[in-house]
Amino acid sequence: MIELEHLSRRFGATSAVDDLSLTIPRGDICALIGPSGAGKSTALRLINRLIEPDGGRVLIGGEDAARLPVVALRRRLGYVIQSVGLFPHWTVARNIATVPRLLGWERRRIARRVEELLALVGLEPAHGGRYPHQLSGGQQQRVGVARALAAEPEVLLMDEPFGAVDPLTRRSLQDALKDIQARTGTTIVLVTHDIDEALRLATTLAFLTGGRLVQAATPHAMLAAPASPEIAAFLGGPRLGLRLLQTATAGARTDFSRTAAGEPLDADTPLDEVVARMVAAGVTALPVRDRAGRAGVITLADVVAR
Ligand SMILES: Nc1ncnc2c1ncn2[C@@H]1O[C@H](COP(=O)(O)OP(=O)(O)OP(=O)(O)O)[C@@H](O)[C@H]1O
Ligand SMILES: [Mg+2]
User: Fold this and answer.
1) 42 lines ligand 1 (CB under 6 A)
2) Is 243 part of a structural domain of the chain?
3) From the alpha carbon of 43, which atom of ligand 1 is closest?
4) Is 179 exposed, middle or buried (0-12, 13-18, 19+ CB in 10 A)?
5) Tens of pLDDT along 96-113?
6) Atom of ligand 1 lying closest to residue 42 CA
7) Based on the domain organization, do 229 and 257 belong to the same domain?
8) Last residue of a domain, one of 238, 266, 296
9) What is the CATH number of the domain that holds 274?
10) Of the ligands numbered here, which is closest to the C-alpha atom of 212?
11) Structural domain of residue 262, as residue ranges?
12) How far is it, in rounded angstroms, from Cα 156 to Cα 267?
């Protein structure tokens, strides 16, 4: 869906993006991670042509983005910018309706869609009539997400979309994003500083530093074999092994030939949560049940086995 070919962009003496090549298949969620100043936002802005590259090119669905009319391109790519960037003199509802209005949707269809999106991002219908400055930072950020989703674009570019929201709302927005992605097959490029968020959402992690791509891999592969000490440190340093537990679920390590008493945990439970429950209960084995109703047991030894 998105191919970056030897993409480069300088700002004066700074190489913000340096010879970046990356292929993002349709329906993937690619998380761009890396230190501040690594070139993550610049990469997103090159994809939707807010800035033009000095070298290389971007293909969207096989077409050279430089040859597509900018307006047509922007309709296909929803964009959540790092600083939210709502139009201050427009109400929240009108901000959310930006692209549907551009597309000439009928008034009632727009109103319905705005209502749906407000609910989706956990805002009240009454928020639609307010202006951005009358909302909290986290609420504004959710309006930014709703605006990007409004016309169900093929590609979503999201630059730290949930940075300013509380952990519970953040979780529910992550779940909503996963649902939308599963339903519509949207391709998502997500910049985040929250490694747990990247692990929860992404099918591919791309680690950038100094404008260069150092490693692109599945979350499990990057955690199991980080390509540099900087990546290892970034992913948790000495605690990296705990993060590795997030990439597998109980079902894969359960012994279904045994049973144990007690309330079973779901086979889809990530292994870090399994350990957390063992710690909370002061035990080293827990009963498991899978979707088909099969019962089994998982032990701490199963969890830590590689
Ligand atoms: N418009 C600009 N003019 C000059 N330099 C810029 C401009 N935009 C970005 N840069 C520089 O390019 C580099 C990459 O910036 P970028 O915003 O892409 O980083 P980032 O990875 O998104 O960082 P952060 O995690 O802090 O958001 C930085 O050194 C930054 O100072
Ligand atoms: Mg940035």
Assistant:
1) yes
2) no
3) 18
4) exposed
5) 999 899 889 999 999 999
6) 18
7) no
8) 238
9) 3.10.580.10
10) 1
11) 248-304
12) 31
